[in-house]
Each structure stands twice: as C-alpha cells, then as structure tokens.
Write a structure and sequence with these properties.
heterodimer, A: alpha+beta, Cyclin A, domain 1, SH3 type barrels, 2 domains, six-stranded antiparallel sheet, 27% helix, B: mainly alpha, Nitrile Hydratase, Chain A, two-stranded parallel ribbon, 4 strands, globular
Amino acid sequence: MSYTSHADLGGEPGHGRVEPEPEGDLWHAPWEARAMALTLAMGASGAWNIDMSRSVRETLPDHAALSYYQIWFAALQKLLLARRLLRRAELHRGHSIDAPLPLARTLRAGDVCATLALGSPTLRVASAPPRFALGDRVRMLRHKAMHHTRLPGYVRGKVGTIERMHGAHVFADAHAHGLGEQPQWLYTVTFDAAQLWGEGSGARHAVSVDAWEPYLEACQDEA
Amino acid sequence: MAQHDATHAPHDHEHSELGEMELRVRALETVLSEKGYIDPLALDVLIDTYQTRIGPRNGAQVVARAWADPEFHAWLMRDATAAMASLGFSGRQGEHMIAVQNTPQRHNMVVCTLCSCYPWPVLGLPPTWYKSAPYRSRAVREPRAVLAEFGVTLPESTDIRVWDSTAEVRYLVIPQRPAGTDGMSEAELAELVTRDSMIGTGQPRASQFGLPKA
C-alpha cells in the first residue's frame, strides 16, 4: 500500500519569501468563506473526523496546484462522494436528486456558538503508563509511514529530548483510517537545529514537534 | 447575501477563476442544503463568528491580562486552556492550549509544517502566509531569515525556539511587554498586541504612551 502526503513541507528547499499580510484579511473571495463554513458545518455532522479530513487533503493529487480553500473544497467533495452522501450528477446539476442518507446531526444556526466553544477535545484516559519521562532522549521512527501520520519527515530518525508531556490523546494515525481513537501518550520532543539540518548549516535554534508514543524509540547513547 | 458583500474582494484579474469556484461552491451548498445535511443560516453564523467575534483581538486580551496581572500570567503558563477559558476563549482548534513566554534570552515562534494548525479561539483563522509553503517549509529551518522578512531582527544572543504544532496542542506566544507601558490599562495594552506577535513573527507595537513626542 502506498500513501503520499503532499503537505509535509518542513525543511523542504525551493520555497520563496514569506508574504506578510495585514490582520483582518481572512478571505480573498466570497466563495472561500462559504467553503470554510461548509467544511465546518459538514465536519460537525459526524460523517467523518478531522484526521480523515486532513488525510484526504494531504493526498489530493493536485495539492500543490490548489489554493488553500480549493484544497478544503476538493477534500470536502471527495469525502461526501466517498461516503455516498451525494453523487457527481447532483454536483453537476446543482440540485439534489437522491434522498438524503441519515447523518448523526445537522449543525443548526442556533447551535454554532456552543458547538465551537466546546470543540473536540482529544485528551483521553491512558490505558498504560507512559514509556518515557521528561528529559529522556528519544529517537523518532526512521521509516516513512504508509498511512496518514503526524510525524514530519524532517525529524524522522532524529534524536530529541522529551520536553513536555500532554497526557494520552486520540491517535491521529489510527483515527484517520477509521480504526478508532486508540489513545496514545503525547510528548513535545525538542531537537537542536544542527541535529536536524547538519552541523554545517550554521543553524543554532531549537525545534519541537508534538509526537505520539508510537513515533518514539528509546535512545540511551549518542547526543 | 450580506456575508458575500462583507467578504467581497476586488481581484478583477482573477475573476474568471473565482467565478468558477463561486459557482461550484454554490452548487455544493445548494445540494447539501436540499438534502438537509446543512443549515445555510449556520454557514452565515460561522462566517460572521470568525469575522467579528473570534479573532486575534481575543488573544490580545489574553496577553494584556497576562502583562497586567501576575497571577493570571502564572495560571496561563501553568494551564493555558483553563486561563483562556476564564476570559471566554475556548473550543474548536484550541482545545489544548499552551502559552509560551518570550524573554530577552528566548524568542518563540509557531508553525504547522504538516497543514495549518493554529489556535483559533484566540487568533481566529490563520493568515494566508501561515498556511503557505514558504512559511511552513522555512520556519523550522531558517527562522531568522523568515523573521527578517517580517521586519524582525533579534540579537544574536537570543535563542530561537520553533514549535511545530503537529498534534492537537495549540501554542500562543506571549510577547514581552513593551517598555514605557507601566501606567497603561489592559484595554490600552491590548491595542499594542499584534496577531503576528502572538505567532512569534512580530513584536508588539511600541508604546506611544508617556513618551516624549519625537
């Protein structure tokens, strides 16, 4: 099985300048706001979860050619089609043809504030004690995952230090593929930039990622 | 339709492309609405919420309170989720919050290299540059060069700490309180707090308060 994320960009060379933007510029066209709202409203329906959304977005074959909200919109359509909540013919016609399928819930205007304020916390009761403690040296998995993962490529195989512990959280790798929540301990792991980008890079900063326990291996030797 | 007017942007040269997206999004909205999967009024409320109620002015209130109230600051550093909720800021894309404090020795900067994770309850929706390939690829590799593009130059002695938000924990940078702000109210302090200063790509505005006119 092959899986390619087009969204794992950390450290990738060849990208140009960052273009700062004033506060308040949220959307660059009216459709972007509607696409954002449609995505949130359907996300609240329970037909899929946020990890499934991220997985569909990052694997869109034309990801690099699409703008941010075009990615959201394309992923939303793909999720709806895959679950047979609608058909292409309905999109072409611009009207519903088939009877709707049942959904867990429909987000009503009056419930928006409360729903947003609640969010979807991912903290869960841990089923086992943590394998690692603050200050431990750990090595990140070396191999590329053949499924959705939140371990960025630029830290694969690198050695870092556990800086924070966040309790057990819904495991994105499993949750994205419909395998349930499978909560795992979540850690902030910090790396020296020289370790990530090479001693010759001149980089002196530190970078952390938030990593679930299955991404980590114990590492006693080498600093 | 009021929402469409409110979000209108004059990009005439992109009109044909945007026109096509406009039609496709409207078609999808119609289908979903006819099926009863969505309530179109909920879309209006969602858009209005992120335009007027959930944005970086919320985070600015958090920072101003932290600057003004040492007890709140201590709570924020210990349990940011609860401290922010006490000001009414909680929920979607901010369920698990961490506040990180800038000091003369250490400057914090936040990125999401894998997508666009961002603390929505306190900063709202992320700006385009935060979601763009240049920022996401370069912030972890050459943060000083990225900061320079925002007009931020830090002393060589300041350590830079980049937080890549790869799970459901969200980070808010607490910038250093500017000098010359001793007598200011929380509301005045909040005016100095910029969105970018809470991402770590900017500094708060300098205070004009109590300083001699240049």
